[in-house]
Amino acid sequence: MVEVFKTNVQKETDTNYIIAIINRQFPDYKVNFDLDDCDRILRVEGVDLEVNNIIDYMNCLGYICLQLE
């Protein structure tokens, strides 16, 4: 399963930190960003993704994170 999120992440250094946080909580998820996309895409792949938890983590870190359909 793959979920795609729109974010407001701007810096590559921020993506590394966010990926580390998500991987610490969800070690089986494959996480990456596409900052070249206008929506600053966060892509998460895994089994039984916890979408709301990912959004909550991003929000707690101070970022906007919206699930794209």
Structure overview:
There is one protein chain. The protein has helices at 12-25, 51-60, and strands at 2-7, 30-34, 41-45, 65-68. The protein has 69 residues and is an alpha+beta fold. The protein has one domain (2-68): Alpha-Beta Plaits. It has a four-stranded antiparallel beta sheet with strand order 2-3-1-4, with helices on one face. The longest helix has 14 residues, at 12-25. It starts with a strand and ends with a strand.
Give the topology, please.
Blueprint: E1 2-7, H1 12-25, E2 30-34, E3 41-45, H2 51-60, E4 65-68
Antiparallel strand pairs: 1-3, 1-4, 2-3
Query: What is the residue-mean pLDDT, rounded to a whole number?
Result: 95
The CATH topology comes to Alpha-Beta Plaits
Uncertain residue ranges: none
CATH architecture: 2-Layer Sandwich
> What global shape is seen?
globular
CATH class: Alpha Beta
Oligomeric grouping of the chains: single chain
Within the largest sheet, what's the order of strands?
2-3-1-4
Q: Give the tally of structural domains.
A: 1
Give the biggest sheet: 4 strands, antiparallel
Protein name: Methyltransferase type 11
Organism: Flavobacterium hibernum
Write a compact overview of the structure shown.
The chain is 35% helix and 29% strand. The protein is of the alpha+beta class and 69 residues long.
Essential attributes:
4-stranded antiparallel β-sheet; 69 residues; Alpha-Beta Plaits; 4 strands; alpha+beta
